[in-house]
Amino acid sequence: AVVSTQSTGKQLSPDDLSTSLTSAAVSESLPAAITACYSETRSLLQDTISHTAHTEPQYKTLEWRLECRTNSRALRNTVQPSVLTKWTTSSAKSGEKARYLNCDINTLSHITETLQQAQSELQSFHSRRVQRSLNKIW
Questions:
Q1: Would you say 23 and 67 are in contact if contact means Cβ atoms under 8 Å apart?
Q2: More exposed terminus of the chain, fewer Cβ within 10 Å: N or C?
Q3: Are 7 and 138 in contact (CB under 8 A)?
Q4: Is 0.70 topped by the overall pTM?
Q5: Which DSSP string corresponds to the chain?
């Protein structure tokens, strides 16, 4: 069932599925049976997946504003900068949605460093190797 669902999600043809199963070193009769079942139920699986697919919101726009609080009565000669960001996302189910994040400069720097580190991890040798292995399977 998982093989059929994943194959339908990747929009594999029955021939591609058969080739993938054969190269995965499964027994000789199994690829033919799975491919036959997949061919019969492919359209039903595609309809079901398209109706139940969970889509993550997609980034659309980012707006930001720098705010500085200066000289309160209690604290003289101080400046407290903060950044207000508006993240607009869109999804098929909920449409456009705006989210606001108000943070100080240190927190924003930490978020930036964390995102840059995650991006560099995606470009690492190990990550690329895992991605290639997953692409070979499906």
A1: no
A2: N
A3: yes
A4: no
A5: -HHHHHHHHTT--HHHHHHHHHHTT--SHHHHHHHHHHHHHHHHHHHHHHHH-----EEEEEEEEEEEEE--SSS-S-EEEEEEEEEEEEETTTEEEEEEEEEEHHHHHHHHHHHHHHHHHHTSHHHHHHHHHHHHH-
pLDDT digits (tens, 9 = 90+) for 103-118: 998 998 998 999 999 9
- Identify the sign of the CA torsion 42, 47, 51, 57: positive
* Cα-to-chain-centroid distance, residue 36: 32
Q: pLDDT by residue (tens digit) across 49-90?
A: 766 666 778 889 999 999 988 877 777 778 888 999 999 998
